[in-house]
Amino acid sequence: MTTNRPSADYPLGNTDAEHERLIRQAARVAPITERFFREAGIGLGQRVLDLGSGVGDVAMLVARLVGPSGEVVAVERDSTAVAKARARVTAAGFHNVKFKESNVDEILHGKAFDVAVGRFILMYLPDPVATLRSISQAVRVGGVFVFQEPCWVPVLAHLRALPLWFATASLIDKAMRASANHDMGTDLYQTFVDAGLPAPAMRMELPMGKEPYLARWYYDTLCSLRPQIEHLHMPIESLGSLDTLVQRLQAEVAESKTVASWFASVGAWCRKA
User: Fold this and answer.
1) Mean of the pLDDT values across residues 106-121?
2) What pTM value is reported for the model?
3) Residue 69 CA to chain centroid, in angstroms?
4) pLDDT at residue 237 is higher than 90
5) Cβ distance 59 to 81 under 8 Å?
6) For residue 53, what are the β-bridge partners?
7) Residue 5 has what pLDDT?
8) Who's near 16: CB < 8 A, 6+ residues apart?
9) What is the pLDDT of residue 107?
């Protein structure tokens, strides 16, 4: 899942179940990502570098935007994820996507890229400033940097009105913060600037509602995080039986006069001077 650190450090694991969770998550977040990317200027014929491509969802989204005349080079360290991504791209009929199982530093020499993108990747890197500074060597002058990262401060603030939702989100947030920057979204501005890039334009989106997929996403994420939570001796038992968590979350929001929320996504983009 990452480009500069061992994939074993990814707190949600690299199981088949986690890959399937990522695919479901990607389908829900795709409209937000596509709006970010279109607004940043990603379009037909461009050559795009996708960092931390995982099982390939961002690469395929970008492949549609750049069309057959464009190209996507996707970098991922986890060999299992790369194999799954290649199979998915082939099944989807894309011919303009290449996957590289490598560190980002290994692809810096060659034809320049028009765009560098990443979704939920900088949050896991030990030095995201150094990563952006490094990949800037591979992007042409006038090329675009566009990254999407999470922010959990508004999520927790909103969910305080829903005790079970708040407890569930808080446990996920605390477990993630042990090995990731869970507010990387709001850090994007300074990260871009510290990397020597122009100050980025930014946007935040926070999906809200009472749709069942929201409760299911919290449950799925908690299941992937469970080994990490138990390793950190966090009180997962305080949530009650996980077998009924989705139903109880859904009942709580259904009976309330408010709505639940997903995590907030922050997009930041700029053009290389």
Assistant:
1) 87
2) 0.92
3) 26
4) yes
5) no
6) none
7) 37
8) none
9) 66
